[in-house]
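ok new one. same drill as before - structure tokens go in, u give me an amino acid for every spot. 156 of them this time. try not to just spam alanines like last time pls lmao
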């Protein structure tokens, strides 16, 4: 039986994906006390990147914003893999977003809004968080966007 958060995802037409397997020597998420920290999540769908390149060059800001939503969805899957149930989320504490940017692109905050807005749609007030949006030269696999999420769990 789906919990409240997974029911909200379904209401939004979204399905929680399988956890993206690590690309190197790390875990998709780890728990420390009441907190879950995800590794950087790429916009992987069915095991591959749909889009590669730099935002502001090969990738439009609107495309990148959608990719950031995918990253956030992958982060929720990673959280569930260690928390057991997304309904245990008390709040999202922090989101860090990385945008592989063309040298003149400065719209990183608008791109990472894709992740922030998804978390707000799914979690309501529990999805309000602190955030950093950083432009970088390149990301793994030439991904346009990478997002990591830190959540606090309730009931511990």
């Amino acid at each position: 039986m789906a919990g409240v958060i997974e029911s909200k995802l379904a209401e939004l037409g979204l399905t929680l994906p399988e956890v993206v397997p690590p690309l190197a020597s790390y875990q998709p998420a780890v728990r420390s006390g009441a907190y879950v920290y995800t590794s950087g999540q790429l916009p992987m769908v069915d095991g591959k990147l749909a889009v590669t390149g730099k935002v502001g060059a090969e990738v439009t800001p609107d495309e990148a914003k959608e990719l950031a939503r995918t990253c956030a969805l992958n982060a929720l899957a990673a959280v569930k893999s260690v928390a057991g149930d997304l309904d245990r989320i008390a709040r999202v504490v922090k989101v860090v977003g990385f945008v592989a940017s063309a040298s003149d692109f400065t719209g990183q905050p608008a791109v990472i809004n894709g992740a922030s807005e998804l978390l707000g749609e799914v979690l309501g007030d529990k999805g309000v968080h602190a955030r950093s949006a950083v432009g970088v030269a390149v990301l793994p696999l030439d991904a346009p966007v990478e997002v990591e999420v830190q959540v606090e769990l309730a009931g511990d």
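The CA atoms of residues 5 and 123 lie 7 Å apart. and btw The helical segments are 4-11, 61-83, 108-123.
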